[in-house]
Write a structure and sequence with these properties.
The structure is a single chain. This protein is mainly α. A two-stranded antiparallel ribbon has the order 1-2.
Length: 268
């Protein structure tokens, strides 16, 4: 009614009688458009809805005894276009939030690594060959886990309905794009750190020999004793693949860590 104005109130009521479903759909889409992520999208869709209503309310066929099929087709076409633009705005909010989250997560990921290297220098800690390769293996495994987590999130985004909708009171309600962008931003940061920590946890379990089911092709001692390029390449490839798998597949990493914890408690 705010868009219609007082001069078209009677025509708007007639519009609700002739096309009740389309009128309700336009009302809902107008509300969704004013919660859009970008301001220019909100203004553009407000203008679009205003033009659609003006065209319909000025149309002489609105007063026909039976709803005009051409007018109904026009409404359906415009409603579809508005819905597509709202969906595109939601996808933009998801991408914008994830991009910021991933950039912030990668930046924060290197902060503890740089701080740890500096602290080792301040404490005058000397590392031998096995220590250096052990730390490098943890960094490689953790970094690959972070990238695996990023790929996992991007893979899940293929189904937009699961991203843009969430359970609410037994059903699924649409999430406002602004809230969706903030949640994706936080999710990008948290997902990177989660993949990083899970990969390092798996690295510690496997490298210490607590899990005997997986055989390590090249251990730290093998690389340092033989000083072989082949063993070094095998070392990087193996821990990179393990880290990526741990970050990409949380269930596998959780299952491996949880199984080992349960086994140790049972033996104790």
């Amino acid at each position: 009614m705010d868009l219609v104005g007082s001069e078209f109130q009677d025509a708007y009521r007639q519009f609700g009688v002739a096309f009740p479903e389309q009128q309700l759909e336009l009302q809902l889409l107008y509300g969704d458009s004013q919660r859009a992520f970008e301001e220019k999208t909100r203004e553009s869709l407000k203008t679009t809805v205003h033009h659609v209503l003006s065209n319909v309310l000025r149309d002489q066929r609105l007063g026909d005894p039976q709803p005009d099929k051409h007018l109904a087709a026009y409404l359906e076409r415009e409603i579809l276009r508005i819905r597509v633009r709202i969906d595109q705005d939601g996808e933009l909010a998801v991408n914008r939030g994830l991009n910021i989250g991933f950039v912030a997560g990668v930046f924060l990921l290197f902060v503890p690594l740089l701080a740890g290297e500096k602290l080792l220098g301040l404490c005058d800690v000397s590392l031998n060959c096995t220590d250096r390769w052990g730390l490098l293996g943890a960094f490689v495994c953790g970094g690959a886990g972070a990238f695996g987590a990023v790929l996992s999130v991007l893979t899940r985004l293929r189904n937009n309905d699961d991203v843009t909708r969430r359970p609410a009171n037994g059903g699924k309600a649409a999430v406002a794009p602004g809230q969706l962008s903030r949640s994706m931003r936080r999710g990008g940061v948290h997902r990177i750190f989660l993949g990083w920590l899970l990969a390092i946890a798996v690295y510690l379990l496997l490298s210490t020999g607590l899990v005997a089911a997986i055989e390590i092709p090249a251990a730290v001692t093998d690389v340092c004793s033989a000083e072989s390029t082949a063993n070094g390449t095998l070392f990087w490839g193996f821990w990179g693949a393990v880290g990526f798998l741990a970050g990409f597949n949380e269930r596998w990493a959780y299952g491996l860590v949880g199984r080992e914890v349960t086994t140790r408690q049972t033996h104790c």
